[in-house]
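Lecture notes, unit on protein representations.

Consider one protein chain, 214 amino acids long.
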Amino acid sequence: MSWWQIVLIILGSIIVGVLVGYLLYYLIVIIAARLRKKPTDIPANEPQATAVVPEPPKAQVPEPPKIKIPEPSKVKVSELPRAKVPEPPKTKIPEPPPKKVPEPSKTAVPDLFLEIESNRRIASQTWTGDLQSFQTQAWDNKGDEVHSLPPEVREELTQAYFDMSLANSVVWLATEMGRRSPSLDESYLKLRSTIADRLNRVKSPIEQLRLGQS
């Protein structure tokens, strides 16, 4: 027997099974429908008793008492008493005392050229034993004039004023701190000599600059 014959037999069996199942299902449905239409065993002459169920009495629900809501009293805002806010006490702010403008020191030299010449005389004069301070106010305050000087003059003055600050520190230690000693005097004299040499080298160019500005 070939394979296609086997396949036909299987398909035929399936089709026959489906048809038989459908026929059985149809018969079961018809029988069930007829059984539902069978009349009841109650005789036709006897009337069927209908039970009358009395309606339950309606319960009377008492009405809630009416509550009168009092209307808000009409009060004008303007009639309400105003609370008095105490005013803060007036305090007088003391005026700051007038600032005292410090008077210029008599030893201060306002012009840079005058200050350089004054320091040159202090460094060049004969030393009598007094530790005299050098002036540096104009050099510290007149930066525009300092930068306008020729480079070689500005370099000499920068070194000279650096030595002046060291010499002023020696004077402060000796006079204010009371630590004067022969070694401090020797240091002051060396710085004084170096300052004189530097300022003497720039004396001529400074005088020419001063004459050119006048």
